[in-house]
Design goal:
The C terminus is likely disordered. Helices cover about 20% and strands about 30% of the residues. Strand 2 and strand 3 form a beta hairpin. The protein has two domains: about 210 residues, Spore Coat Polysaccharide Biosynthesis Protein SpsA, Chain A; about 90 residues, UDP N-Acetylglucosamine Acyltransferase, domain 1 (3 Solenoid), CATH 2.160.10.10. It is an alpha/beta fold. The chain is elongated. The structure holds guanosine-5'-diphosphate-alpha-D-mannose and magnesium ion (MG).
Length: about 350
C-alpha cells in the first residue's frame, strides 16, 4: 500500500526558517518533521511518495543519506500543484487504496485503526478528525454520529463553521478520488475535491482519535511541539552530537556542534546545528537557525534568528524575526496554495 506525503509548499508562515530549507526538514527533537511522520506509518505501507517542489534537492539529499526502512519515491512537481494537484501527480505510483498525509503534523493517530474504520464503512474517503477551539485556519466538517461526513468547509468564517471538528490532515482514499482531480492543475483537495466526493458518493467518513494533535504551521506551534514532545518523553532537553554546553538548558533542543558559553540560560528554545552562543546569554522561546552566532550578554525573547545570522554582544530583543540577507529569489511574496494570508 502506498502513502503520499504532501511535503511541498513554501511554509511561508515559518519564515525565515523556510527561506533556506524545506518545511518538512525542520527538526523536531533533532529529527526532520517528515521522519516523525514516516516512523508512524503502518507496516503495510511499503512505498512512500514524497510530493515535493520547493527545496526538493535538500529532501533528495536527506533521503540519499538516510534509510527510513521504506521505499521512497521523490515526486517533484516543478511548480506547486496544491494538495489535490500533487496527489493526482502521484497517480502513476498508486496501485489501490492509499493514504495521503500532510507533512506538518505531529499526532498520536493510529493509521492502522483508521484504515480498518475506512474498510468497515466501505468508505470512498476517510479523513482524520480532531476538535479545536478556533477552527478558522482549518478544514471543518459536519459529521453524523456514525462518522459519516455530510459537509466539509475549508477555512470557514467562525459563524459558518459547521462544528469544532477539523480535518486533521490524514486521509485514506479509494482510487476513484483521483478521477475527480484534473491533471497538471493547481487543485485544492480540501476546497474543490472533498465537497464533491461527499456529494457524489455519500461515502465520506471522519475518524476521531484520542491523544494529541499539533500542526506546525507557525513558529509558535513549532516551539510548542518541541516543548510538548520533551514533556511527553519526560526529557528536560534534547542534545545533538559534538556539543559543548557550559550554560543551562531547560525544555530546549540543541542540534549538532553547538557551543553554549558559561552562565547562559536557554529556555524553551530550539537551536539548530553549528550554532555558537556566548556567555551570559539569555534565550527564551527562541529559534536559532543554522550557523548563527549569538554573542555574549544577549537577551532574546520570542525571537527567530534565520540561518547564518550574527547577533552582536549585549543585544536585547523581544518578539521579532532576524533576517538580514536578501529574500531568496525563488520564494513567493505572499502565500500561495492552501494557506491563508496572515
Ligand atoms: N506537494 C505539494 N504541493 N504539497 C503541498 C502544496 C503543493 O502545492 N501545498 C501545500 N502542500 C503541503 C504542505 O506542505 C502541508 O504538508 C500540506 O500540503 C497542507 O498544506 P498547508 O499549506 O500546510 O495547509 P493548511 O495547514 O493551511 O491546511 C491544511 O491542514 C489543516 C490541518 O493542519 C488543510 O488540509 C486543512 O483542511 C487542515 O485542517
Ligand atoms: Mg499546515
Amino acid at each position: 500500500m502506498e502513502a503520499i506525503i504532501l511535503a511541498g509548499g513554501f511554509g511561508t508562515r515559518l519564515r525565515p526558517l523556510t527561506y533556506t530549507r524545506a518545511k518538512s526538514l525542520l527538526p523536531i527533537l533533532n529529527k526532520p518533521m517528515i521522519i516523525h511522520l514516516i516512523d508512524s506509518l503502518p507496516s503495510e505501507i511499503d512505498k512512500v511518495i514524497l510530493a515535493v517542489n520547493y527545496r526538493k534537492d535538500q529532501i533528495e539529499e536527506y533521503f540519499s543519506k538516510h534509510d527510513c526502512g521504506k521505499e521512497i519515491i521523490i515526486n517533484d512537481e516543478k511548480t506547486p500543484l496544491g494538495t489535490g494537484g500533487a496527489t493526482k501527480y502521484a497517480e502513476k505510483h498508486i496501485t489501490g487504496r492509499f493514504l495521503v498525509l500532510n507533512s506538518d503534523i505531529i499526532c498520536s493517530l493510529n493509521l492502522d485503526k483508521m484504515i480498518n474504520f475506512h474498510k468497515k464503512n466501505n468508505s470512498a474517503a476517510t479523513i482524520s478528525l480532531w476538535p479545536v477551539k478556533n477552527v478558522s485556519e482549518f478544514g471543518v466538517v459536519d459529521v453524523q454520529k456514525d462518522g459519516k461526513i455530510i459537509s466539509f468547509v475549508e477555512k470557514p468564517k467562525p459563524e459558518d463553521a459547521p462544528s469544532n471538528l477539523i480535518n486533521a490532515g490524514a486521509y485514506c482514499l479509494e482510487p476513484l478520488v483521483l478521477d475527480y482531480i484534473k491533471k497538471g492543475r493547481l487543485v485544492s483537495m480540501e476546497k474543490e475535491i472533498f465537497p464533491r466526493i461527499i456529494n457524489d458518493t455519500d461515502r465520506f467518513y471522519g475518524f476521531k482519535f484520542q491523544g494529541y494533535w499539533m500542526d506546525i504551521g507557525r513558529i509558535s506551534s513549532f516551539l510548542e511541539v518541541n516543548r510538548f514532545l520533551l514533556d511527553l518523553k519526560k526529557l528536560d532537553f534534547c542534545k545533538g552530537v559534538n556539543c559543548i554546553v557550559n550554560g543551562v538548558l531547560k525544555k530546549s533542543t540543541i542540534g549538532d556542534n553547538v557551543f553554549i558559553g558559561s552562565n547562559s540560560d536557554i529556555k524553551e528554545t530550539i537551536v539548530f546545528n553549528n550554532v555558537k552562543i556566548g556567555y551570559n546569554v539569555i534565550l527564551s522561546n527562541c529559534v536559532i537557525g543554522e550557523n548563527s552566532e549569538i554573542n555574549n550578554g544577549c537577551k532574546l525573547e520570542y525571537i527567530v534568528v534565520g540561518d547564518n545570522e550574527k547577533i552582536k554582544e549585549k543585544t536585547t530583543l523581544e518578539n521579532t524575526i532576524i533576517w538580514t540577507q536578501p529574500k531568496p529569489k525563488d520564494y513567493p511574496d505572499k502565500q500561495i496554495g492552501n494557506a491563508v494570508i496572515n
